[in-house]
Amino acid sequence: MPVLLMRLDAPMQSWGTQSRFTVRDTGREPSKSAVIGLLCAALGVDRGDDARLADLAATRMAVRIDRPGTIMRDFHTAGGIRPGAAWKGRRYGVAKASGGTPDTVVSTRYYLSDAAFLVALQSDDRALLEACERALRAPVWPLFLGRRSFVPGRPIPIPGDGVRDTDDLMAALCGEPLCLRPREKPDERLRCVVEVDDLDAEVRRDQPLCFQNGERSFSLRYVEDKWIESADLPTEEVPSCTSAG
After folding, report:
1. 140 by DSSP, 3-state: which?
2. To pair with 36 at 20 to 30 A between CA atoms, which of 4, 43, 211, 241?
């Protein structure tokens, strides 16, 4: 069955699934909703196009954690008092939905620093995966890894043909080289998060149903942790391109 492979490697990434108000979380690896959103941006799929979203969301996903990165925290402020005679004491801040006086918004935002992932998406629709790969090479809208300021540190599509025919998702993850920077030593075992049909597996609410503003909704999917010995993978050296380079 065809599988699309993508590399997500950047100085900073954020994959939140439970963010509420002033605390923005991040997962340890990309969420399915974020990966599908990335493909929607590449393809130019409008937020209200639920039919095309459903086609993409029907894929099955697996992630190989090549470099787990470090969770970092950012204390973030927006708005506040702006001095100066021209402002005449008026507040400068973030607008409120209630229509009240704009004010300072303080938030705590978490992100992954210096992480790298190999993502595999499986579908019986080869044409869909091939269209996604072409779009990743020439995206309609800018691509980012969880937040608009977190741009990819290297191309997302893998070199050559990014759509492979493999027996299963783990076979796809085992067949792609581990890209190492000069003098980098990978972990002895690489964790893989694989989507499964087992209802007793770990539950995640990141299966996208709708991306429309004010109507965003997600359903459950089930995943299992599996492991690959890094010594069993072919390796490929790449130029240093992230914050730890």
Report:
1. coil
2. 241
Coarse DSSP helix, strand, coil percentages of the chain, rounded to the nearest 5 percent: 20, 40, 40
Q: What is the value of pTM for the model shown?
A: 0.86
DSSP for 26-52 reads --SS--HHHHHHHHHHHHT--TT-HHH
Mean pLDDT by 10 residues, the chain (245 residues): 95 83 85 96 94 96 96 82 59 70 80 95 96 97 93 92 90 92 88 95 94 87 96 81 46
Phi, psi of 194 (to 5 degrees): -120, 130
Domain count, the chain: 1
Closest CA to 226 of 203, 204, 180, 195: 195
Place of tokens 């069993």: 232
Cα dist from 183 to 68, 115, 162, 180, 233, whole Å: 17, 16, 27, 8, 17
Residue 195 lies in a domain: yes
The answer to whether residue 232 is domain-embedded is yes
Asked if residue 223 is part of any domain, the answer here is: yes
Which residues constitute the domain of residue 128? 2-69+113-237
Tokens describing residue 109: 């935002």
Packing angle between helix 126-137 and helix 50-57, nearest 10 degrees?
Answer: 100
